[in-house]
Design brief:
By secondary structure, this protein is of the alpha/beta class. Helices cover 25% and strands 25% of the residues. The protein is built from eight helices and 16 strands. The chain has a seven-stranded mixed sheet. A hairpin with a 6-residue loop joins strand 15 and strand 16. The longest helix has 22 residues. 39% of the residues are buried.
Length: 304
Amino acid sequence: MRLAFFGSPDFAVPALRALAEAGHDIVAVYCQPPKPAERGLKETKCAVQRAAEALALPVRTPVRLRNDTDEHRFFASLGLDAAVVAAYGLILPKPMLEAPRRGCLNIHASLLPRWRGAAPIQAAILAGDAETGITIMRMDEGLDTGPMLLKEAVPIGPRDTAASLHDRLAEVGARLILRALAEDPPAVPQPAEGVTYAPKLSRADGAIDWTRPAWEIDRKVRAFDPWPGTTARVGTETVKVLAAEPVEERCEAAPGTLLDDAGRVACGDGTVLRLLRLQRPGRAAQEAAACLRGLRLAPGTRFS
């Protein structure tokens, strides 16, 4: 089948490779342009561009698509059977959505209509959902509103992080898109009820609010691993909380109070969270107890 592929991060790479290995004719791979790396290093290609180049596939990296009529004409000239989209990062305008014979098929990391939007994996963990999954949908001009072709549920374990769930969902997405192209299942409209949205995240979202219960903070730590990460501030220093777990006990201390040298911290509703791994700025990750010793934090210290 003659295809174009749209994707940028690691999540999209298994699908791109699966399509190539299945023998599909991928005539264009669209991804985000290379971006400057942190600390002034040279520009870095996204995961999909690196994978596409390794497969000797032609890559296009437009900065924008909405009003780029030259790109619209080029895309239409490809004579595509379908386009596959997985976490691309730009909105596809109507002329491009309508160009492929079978439309543009999106690999979305949730069980639509739950968690439309930019961060469905993180949102599912934050909400305490028992499961999430992959939906293959035919794209329209709305935000993840198109009709559904295939769905597969994936359980969310009690210690799953966004990283662990991401990897399982990426593999399911690669398998389902091959089925969708091979079977051409009928499109089913999304139900009007049960719609939820997963907004785009920023680093500022990672600050821990210790007035929330421990189980909620635990979900946040797991949902924001590896990005945008969760942080706790003590004195003038901000530390990353890489791992934590709720403790089955109650306390009366003010939220944010360090209870002992082992990293137990009082949270909202009298709950307790145990810090497991922390990272100070510019340093390697450490077991929480060792990091707290390095910070010279005594029980009774307050995190903010």
